Amino acid sequence: MTEAFRYERGTLHCEDLAAPAIAEQTGTPCYVYSRASFLGRFRTIRDAFGPLDALIAYAVKANSNLNLLRLLADEGSGFDVVSGGELARVLDAGGDPKKTTFAGVGKTDDEIRQALTAGIRHLNVESPGELERIDRIARDRGEKARVALRVNPDVDPQTHRYITTGKAENKFGIDLQAAAELARGSGDLAGIELVGLHAHIGSQVGDPAHYVASLQKLLALRDELAGYGVAIRSLNLGGGYKISYEGSEGRPAGDYAAAIAPLLEGKGIELEIEPGRWIAGPSGVLLTRVVEVKRGGEKRFVIVDAAMNDLVRPSLYGSYHAVWPVSAEAGPPDLDGPGNKTESVAVQLSSADVVGPICETGDFLAQDRPFPDVDRGDLVAVFCAGAYGFTMASNYNSRGRPPEVLVDRDGFTVIRRRESYEDLVALERA
Ligand code: LLP
Prior knowledge:
By secondary structure, the chain is an alpha/beta fold. The chain has helices at 19-26, 35-48, 66-74, 84-92, 109-118, 128-140, 176-185, 209-227, 253-264, 277-280, 313-317, 421-425, and strands spanning 5-8, 11-14, 17-18, 30-34, 55-59, 78-81, 100-102, 122-125, 145-152, 174-175, 192-198, 234-236, 270-273, 284-296, 299-304, 323-325, 350-355, 364-371, 379-382, 404-408, 411-416.
């Protein structure tokens, strides 16, 4: 459980609002976010890195709803974007381009131009070829492009192989030696101003020591470059700070800040970090309703109206999300927090697969879970769904994507409406 989602008087609440009140109005499935949690978690990580004077560049890919971006922009957050679309969202939401960085291995010429026109903080360059292209495009425009080199520090953060990004065999960044050569040559590029080094080692990185290892490599490279007269003023450690999907293995943001602080002391470095999941993940749930319950062999299938098109993480990575009925004495025993002590779950549990209606065996939200008896029409919540939930949703099986609502104390606003059939086919009409 999180601060924002708790069971009270037998019902899941988001802040002071009972979840069924939302489902009644919006229907299901529906993403529900807590404003207090989203803002609170941003402030917590900002304050944790406060002594290091770090720029918090929220990773827009985790949850890019304009209304959430606006909340962060109003708080003075920076942004990490990876596409022209994300950059446009940030600008639309009132985000400050001077606090916005642009990463990604395949930026197109148009996206580079878009970033230069917006006057962003810097582009994170991922290959020698890309640096050449940025140089040419900037020179054609008669400007200098601010860039950071994204290095691949070859650090193994020991997480899921699909979300590991900083090992030598991953497609991201430039290896340290090539980055050193590139940086030394950058002084000859009239269209380039090299300002920083960047490394993102992966997601769900639980041990701060991996950031220390990555930072040590960045600092060594910075020292080497200083020896050649190339001054680097900013270091970007990327995102990846771990949250708890089950139990309490997430890390307080302060642990990461405390681990790296001694390395930065007195160096006058501008530090940037790019948390996405840490802010958005625990701030949202996906509400869904039981359509049918059936047995198949030894299995009990709880068929709900949310599917892999709405939340693909379980299908794609085998990710674990706590799933639990909205009406229950206490919260899911697999998540800690107020109102859900395991011993207070005085109900019969038996194994169930919680699955969606999509025609794929891989369409599941939970497998082989101890789960209470539920009936057709019961509401069920999928927890920690605020990051990489809606942003990875699709229209597979011609399903409209779900609405998103933002709860503020005892009220809520629909911050994205449900997609209709007309939305689905609008671009196909002759
Ligand atoms: N910075 C860069 C350059 C990134 O590539 C990412 C995530 C982040 C920051 C933010 O990472 P976070 O703090 O959110 O862990 N879809 C996967 C996660 C993919 C992450 C991709 N890059 C999932 O659902 O687990």
